[in-house]
Protein: Glutaredoxin
Amino acid sequence: MQQVLIYSSDFCPFCRRAKQLLEQKGVLYEEINVDKVRGSRKEMAEKAGRTSVPQIWIGETHVGGCDDLYALQQAGKLDALLQG
Structure:
C-alpha cells in the first residue's frame, strides 16, 4: 500500500470527510496539521501550489483536496492508486 500524506486543519469539514473516507478504506495516513506544525502551511503551498486544506498525496501523486479524493473514489480509481 502506498504512503498517504494529508495536510489538514482541525477546523476544516473537508479534512474530516477526506480522513473519514481513508479510514473507511482502512488506509493509514500521515497527517500534518497546519494549525499546529509551524511552517507546514507554507510547505504545503509550495508542494501543492494550493493554500487550501486538505491537500493529499498518495505515494508521489498529488491527489489534491477532498473533492478530488472523492472523485477518484467515484471513478473507481482510488483503490488502484492506493495499491500503487
